[in-house]
Amino acid sequence: MSNDNHRIALITGANKGIGLATARELARAGHTVLIGARAPERGAEAAAGLTAEGLDARFVRLDVTDPATVAAAAALVTAEYGRLDTLVNNAAITRDFGTTPETLPLDDLRTTYETNVFGAVTVINAMLPLLRTSPAGLIGNVSSGLGSSSVLADPDTPAGASAALLGYNTSKAALNAVTLVFARVLRAEGIKVSALDPGHCATDLNHHSGPASVEEGGRRIARQLAEALTAPTGQYFNSAGGRYPW
After folding, report:
1. pLDDT confidence bin for 213, thresholds 50/70/90
2. Active-site annotation holds for 244
3. Which of 16, 81, 113, 168 is catalytic?
4. Of the listed 16, 81, 113, 172, which one is catalytic?
5. What would you report as the CA-atom Rg of the chain, rounded to the nearest whole angstrom?
6. Does pLDDT of 142 surpass 50?
7. CA–CA distances in Å: residue 81 to residues 8, 33, 73, 75, 76
8. For the chain, what is the mean pLDDT?
9. Any catalytic annotation for residue 168?
10. What is the pLDDT of residue 3?
């Protein structure tokens, strides 16, 4: 993204990992980044770290599973900025490690969906009035190649054992459907909605097992957001370039 059009960007789950790396990349491009995070201490520390680098960053308390904090975040952005140009739904969890599909507790499956799917919808709905005030509103839902039905249907998929993660994979598939529905209903308003993929990065979520760094994941997300601004709405970006099959 260039400095030509300064943008206000809100990123959920941005106090660490790929979310923080994405915030850094967007801020380096000259944009204002709002660090959405549940924990005030960690969120404020992350924003302060970016500010110390000379970047325009601010902490916004936001727990995607708590509608009250989401509404308060929307009110703050309204009061301070009057608009939102980019929303990145990055917050995600998994409870799959150490389980199989038949042993994953249903409560853990519900918890995964509360953050990865319902949380994203909660934030989108709360931020839509702000996105509507942007000349080029953009929603990027951070998905995964593991959310592609085509990838999961391939018996020889390179994803290997990761293709059997019940909670994470199905929640990302559901998030992809959420992406397509919002892309359809917001098309006439000019707000674009696409699914993003940082690739398999070493994060707390996967016990740092990914081969790519979170910094690379952030660069990929920033590149995909830039492409999403000019591409048709409803894309499913591949971290390696191009698009995933839905």
Report:
1. confident
2. no
3. 168
4. 172
5. 17
6. yes
7. 8, 12, 12, 10, 8
8. 94
9. yes
10. 40
What is the distance between the alpha carbons of residues 46 and 53, in angstroms, rounded to a whole number?
A: 11
Query: For the segment 50-109, what is each residue's pLDDT rounded down to a tens digit?
Result: 999 999 999 999 999 999 999 999 999 999 999 999 999 999 999 998 999 999 999 999
Contact 32, 6 (CB under 8 A): yes
Q: How confident is the model at residue 2 (pLDDT cuts 50, 70, 90)?
A: very low
**By CB neighbour count within 10 A (0-12 exposed, 13-18 middle, 19+ buried), where does 82 fall?**
exposed
Residue extents of the structural domains in the chain: 8-230
Task: Report the amino acid identity of residue 85.
Answer: D
The answer to whether the CB of 93 falls within 8 A of the CB of 167 is no
- For the full predicted model, state whether its pTM sits above 0.85: yes
**Token duo for residue 202:** 């070493």
Q: Which residues contact 28 (CB under 8 A, 6 or more apart)?
A: 55
Superfamily of domain 8-230: NAD(P)-binding Rossmann-like Domain (3.40.50.720)
